[in-house]
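Page 42, continued from yesterday. The earlier attempt failed because a stray header line got pasted into the input along with the sequence. Redoing it now with the clean sequence only.
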Amino acid sequence: MAEGTQSDTQPLDYDQIKDWRSIVTLVAFVLANIVVLFPFHIPLFAPRKLYHVFLRGLSILRITSHPTQDELDRRSQYVDPDGQVKISAFARFDFPLNIVTAPLIADLFLLAILAIGRQEVVEGTWGTENISPVDIMLFFVSLAYIAISIDASGVIRFLAFKVLQWGGKTGHRLFFYLYAFWFILTSFVGNDPVILSGTAFLAYMTRVSSNIVHPRAWIYSQFAVANIGSAILVSANPTNLVLAGAFEIKFVDYTAHMIVPVIITGIVLFPFLLYVVFNSEKLIPPSIQMHELPEEMRMRKPVNPNIPHARGPAEQQEDAPGEQGTLLSLEEIVNPFLDRKGAIFGAVIMAATLVAVLAVNAAAESTEKKPVFYITLPAAFIMLIWDVVFGWLHRHETREIARKGREELERLRVQQALRDQQEQEMMTAALTKRGPSSDGSVSGQTTALPDAGLNAEKNTEDVISTTGDSPEKSPTEKVKEEPNIPGNKDSKFKTPGESERTQPQRATLVSKTKDTYRWAQETFPTATAVIAHLPFALIPFAFSMFVLVQGLVTKGWVQIFALGWDAWVKKTGTIGAIGGMGFLSVLLCNFSGTNIGTTILLSRVIQAWRHIHHLDHINHIDSHPITERMFWATIYTMALGVNYGAFSSAFSASLAGLLWRDILSKKHIHVKRLDFATVNLPIIAIAMVVGCVVLIGEMWLFKSETPLEAV
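This time it went through. Structure tokens are written below.
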């Protein structure tokens, strides 16, 4: 038994849960997880004048620019019952309660009432009972940098395009190829890169297909298989790191026990998805009809999407309805950007890192045990240096691409503003010309408006055709007719650079920060994009959850949960342990702070369960000892449940689920909570049943009924 917070001979005190601080600790844990499941904002109010003084103070200190009247009044405006906009005496601020803030506030509250103290914070941060949060976070974030850097090279979208070519236009074959591709890829690089690039790829692919009515089959299958495949390697998911550390499992042993149930789950699940869950030609048509990309767009040199404004106006137009948006989406698929050197270098670094991690972890018994981030952190630093040096060597090219794209985008905005202004002027002129009838009656005004609208429409078309779309005008004539287009000397609409030169603004901390970030994006596009996509939200959330769970440990709740689990397995045996842990782990993923929070809590419960039997063994009162088969069946079922549980009933069951939802929302595919739960219910059911059945056979073949204390 590893040294931890509990003595090997100290009897457990179950009466401490009656203390009011223990009860409050449990309530705080439950409420924090409810907020994670249902995030919201709470309004906070401050005196408007005090808020104005604060803003002006920031301006005086040159932190922000001088606030305009609109900025001063924005947080004080409200609409009265008559529909009038009024200014309140208070400024309103919406404070977010979400996956980051809720557990942290719960920790601070428990510290304030002395329900937890220094011991819980230290053990929840630096670790105890073989769980080291700092080591886990450093390992995962450093490995995530390498994986996301590989994704930023464009290789995942490029390979997905190749899979699309191999699959051809046969719907079922393409569905299988993409399913297998996501599974294999996730097994090695984890689910975050697959979610980042794969989700956007499928959104584009289903949009440019004329006979895929809804992308449901493709996006749900990808999300499910990405979380199934992440159960194979310890490095693929932070939940696996927590579990392997808590029970001192060698990474090779973990993979050896998990690979068979996971692969068989993937094999059985595919026909179930194809012929049962998504058995509709509207979802997976026998023959997929794709729009054709014009040769001109096909031959266009792809640009690095990590460069800001790299595609100019196309970045805004690709989501627009109509043929133009469809063609731009199609271009994203069939003409993908690929940084070959970056992809090859990243793949080599990732392969070398994984091999080194497995080798060092396997040799840990014969050598001094070292944290695995000793390997991944230097590897991530090497990858970062590559991205920075590569960006610096190509800085002139990337800056030029960004400048041209920014100017094109600004020119489009100015032209659109000019057209809108002229449309408004023509509309006003038309309404004035056909104004109300001489008798001033209401009926006269009412009948005049439709005609005015029709006339305005005609005038609008005339304005648009004369300002830029008429094929009969020469470019010189267009410039004469459009004196306000950017680039003309007399233009009242200026490009960003011209505006800054004519009306220089005082530099502030905020403006300098924005300029620095834009400079970094244009100079080091890959490194900046990768850092922006790192799962930083995981860090405060994970540490806060570790501290909360440690509070449950010291207040006796985890021991109570362990007694409940012990009573269950005494009645049901190994099969009951597998079934019960499978159900419990999936359920708690949705109600216990994502699958990471679930893994932390259940790992502590199983450790306490083992500790209880260890004490009973010492005192010679252990009539129902934990067997080797029962113990490891519980552990590996938990591994299945916390990975598969990501695709169950709530987006917040995993951070990957929140990322998946946000990416789809940006691509105008809005997935509702109820739809997410109902579609995933049969998928998670069949996946867990298959995985648990295979695990039962595996445990009976390779584990014995020998008591764990005797092993």
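Notes: The radius of gyration is 30 Å.
Reminder to self: strip header lines before submitting.
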